[in-house]
Design goal:
The chain has 283 residues and is α/β, with parallel strands linked by helices. It folds into 2 domains: 8-105 and 251-282, Rossmann fold; 108-248, NAD(P)-binding Rossmann-like Domain (Rossmann fold, 3-Layer(aba) Sandwich). 37% of the residues lie in helices and 20% in strands. Helix 4 crosses helix 5 (134-144), helix 4 (107-117) crosses helix 9 and helix 9 (250-265) crosses helix 10. Residues 121-198 form the Quinate/shikimate 5-dehydrogenase/glutamyl-tRNA reductase domain. InterPro entries: Aminoacid_DH-like_N_sf, NAD(P)-bd_dom_sf, SDH_C, Shikimate_DH, Shikimate_DH-bd_N, Shikimate_DH_fam, Shikm_DH/Glu-tRNA_Rdtase.
Length: 283
């Protein structure tokens, strides 16, 4: 990689960033496409976020990805927030155009793209979301925007699940339930797709998984896990053992990254290169 004063700069704002695979994934994509871009890790503690955002503009960055813990806080420093970020209530991609900072969220559409690539159609289907955090909100927004019939949000704390459900006030029914209640088992028995949006099963705590009563699920139910490290979580392994189609989190990571790549470059991303780089990094 030959970096010069003409090289276009993008990067990743978050804290900490020691294990992020995004720089390797995006730099491999830029190299494969012959683009003079570089993707830099930009570890930014919360107290330095305002200065970091001002620095992006001053240093001529094209944009950045935004990750924990800045995805909501960064919104107050932006000139414009795209509808994709307004629906999710968080920004994960920033584009700097004509000195204006524009916030987007590619998580929802990235997840839906990963389902489509796996041959999963959600129109008219019922979904259960495990977890009531920011990732859950993105998935619910993606589902609603693609004509899901109904969504149930299951969490340890019903108050959090209900609070998340109340954020969605359109025509699609969205409800909250507690994991330890019969309503949760009933929702699972009717679900066409179950999505884990919690960190349960993520490295290094790979033995954990959400409390799903597997015998309640339909045989044809699709089981999806946003965790991508490890590539095959215990949750997915158990679903596979029981005959369910499974979809891991790596696909969403690649697709949301590919959408960000297109926002920055105006070109389609080399998804195969991005996926190969990601999987190599995880192994």
């Amino acid at each position: 990689m030959n970096i010069t004063a003409k090289t276009q700069k993008v990067g990743l704002l978050g804290w900490p960033l020691s294990h992020s695979l995004s720089p390797a994934m995006h730099n491999a994509a830029f190299a494969a496409s012959g683009l003079d871009f570089v993707y830099l890790p930009l570890p930014t503690p919360p107290e330095a976020l305002a200065h970091a955002v001002a620095g992006l503009r001053a240093l001529g960055f094209v944009g950045v990805n935004v990750t924990i813990p800045h995805k909501v806080t960064i919104m107050e420093y932006l000139d414009e927030i795209d509808i994709s970020a307004k629906l999710v209530g968080a920004v994960n991609t920033l584009v700097i155009k004509e000195n204006r900072l524009i916030g987007y969220n590619t998580d929802a559409n990235g997840y839906i793209s990963s389902l489509r690539l796996a041959g999963v159609d959600i129109e008219g289907k019922q979904a259960v979301i495990l977890g009531a955090g920011g990732a859950a909100r993105a998935i619910v927004a993606g589902f609603i925007g693609n004509d899901i019939a109904a969504v149930t949000i299951g969490a340890r704390d019903k108050t959090k699940a209900d609070g998340m459900a109340r954020l969605f006030t359109g025509n699609t029914p969205v409800s909250g339930v507690a994991w330890d209640k019969s309503d949760f088992a009933r929702a699972l028995s009717q679900a066409d797709i179950i999505v884990n949006t919690t960190p349960l099963g993520m490295y290094p705590n790979t033995a954990s998984q959400p409390p799903v009563p597997w015998e309640q699920l339909k045989p044809a139910a699709v089981v999806s896990d946003l965790v991508y490290n490890p590539l095959n979580t215990e949750f997915m392994a158990e679903a596979t053992r029981r005959g369910h189609k499974t979809i891991g989190g790596a696909g969403m990571l690649v697709e949301q990254g590919a959408l960000a790549y297109s926002l920055w470059t105006g070109q389609d991303a080399p998804r195969e290169i991005m996926q190969q780089t990601l999987i190599m990094g995880l192994k």
